[in-house]
Amino acid sequence: MTCASRFPIQIIGERISPGYASTRAMLDADDFAGLQKLAVRQVQAGASYLDIHVGTRGPRDLPFVTKLVRSIQEVVEVPLCFDMPEIPVLEAAFLAYDRRKARGALPLLNSLTEQRWALMELHRRHPFRVVVMASERVVDGAACSNDTAEDIAATARRVALRLNSEFGVAQSDVFVDVAVRAVIVDTKGLNRATLDAIRLIRNDSALGGIHIMGALTNIGQQMPAKAVDGSNLKHALENAFLTIAVPNGLDTVMGTPWIGYRPLAAEDHVMSVYREFLDQTGSAALRTIRRLYRP
After folding, report:
1. Is residue 1 situated within a structural domain?
2. Which terminus of the chain has a smaller tally of CB atoms within 10 A, N or C?
3. pLDDT tens-digit readout, 123-136
4. How many domains does the chain have?
């Protein structure tokens, strides 16, 4: 585990992604040296995995995917997480991946849903660990959002057990992404549902050894930069979520390793307002969230 003096969690470094302008510029320019430096920085800051996302370029340029995977593995020894939804792109990434350069560790596929089960055909040729999106399920052939803790936990159980029975995937090779929701539009108690789902999954005896994770950057989307108390509001919200989620059973985050995730004290302004927000829905929830950044 990384960050033992902060939270007992492992971090999947998320910075090799076109979602970050500086990384997108490096990807567009074939700046492999710059991408290597970014990989090394994340690992030195504590990343246990590195997420690799190349956006729309992947399907158009499979040799680029191959070169990127190999160049990253030249400079770091942590396993890679492939965040690419297209099967040909994933195939190219898995073929380029060298387990010997990751100390024997399997790569991680990000991410599987019940509606995208065809991705698992790759597992027969290229064994991998897998991220399962538990925020949606299939109803009558269509994807349906899971908005309750019970639905999230039930989806996690169903998919994890199916992975084991059909492909022999061990529970310890499954990462359940419970979905961290943006607070600014959460009028349905979705943050509370996610936190309760973590506890339900961790306490499920059929899912012993499973990993529970979330992508933290979602929680502060569209929020102002600073809280009333002057703190970095988005980062404080991430820490507030983790302060509750980690004791519930969350053990992995998709995030920026050098940020430094730390528990918040009960009297911390963001922490106290977030706890109050969790017990509310509708307009009351939105009014409470505004207190984070309005005097």
Report:
1. no
2. C
3. 999 999 999 999 99
4. 2
Confidence of residue 1 (pLDDT cuts 50, 70, 90): very low
What's the pLDDT score for residue 295? 84
Whether residue 9 contacts residue 250, with contact meaning beta carbons closer than 8 Å, is answered with: yes
| Structural domain that includes position 184 | 135-295
The residue written with tokens 């979905």 in the block is 179
What does the chain look like in DSSP terms, one character per residue? -B-TTT-SBEEEEEEESTTSHHHHHHHHTT-HHHHHHHHHHHHHTTEEEEEE--TTHHHH-HHHHHHHHHHHHTT--S-EEE---SHHHHHHHHHH--GGGGTTPPPEEEEE-GGGGGGGGGGGTS--EEEEETTEEEETTEEEE--SHHHHHHHHHHHHHHHHHHH---GGGEEEE--PPPGGG--S-HHHHHHHHHHHHHT-GGGTT-EEEEEGGGGGTT--SB-TTSSBHHHHHHHHHHHHHHHHT--EEEE-GGG---PPPTT-HHHHHHHHHHT--HHHHHHHHHTTT--
Same domain? 142 vs 286 = yes
Tell me what pLDDT residue 121 has. 94
CATH assignment at residue 286: 3.20.20.20
The reported pTM is 0.95
Read off φ and ψ for residue 136, nearest 5 degrees: -145, 155
Question: Hey, how many other C-beta atoms are within 10 angstroms of the C-beta on 118?
Answer: 9
pLDDT at 141: 84
Same domain, 209 and 170: yes
Domain end (from 105, 122, 145): 105
Same-domain status, 185 and 46: no
Tokens of 203: 């306490």
In order of 83, 112, 144, 244, 250, the CA distances from 109 in angstroms are: 7, 7, 22, 27, 19
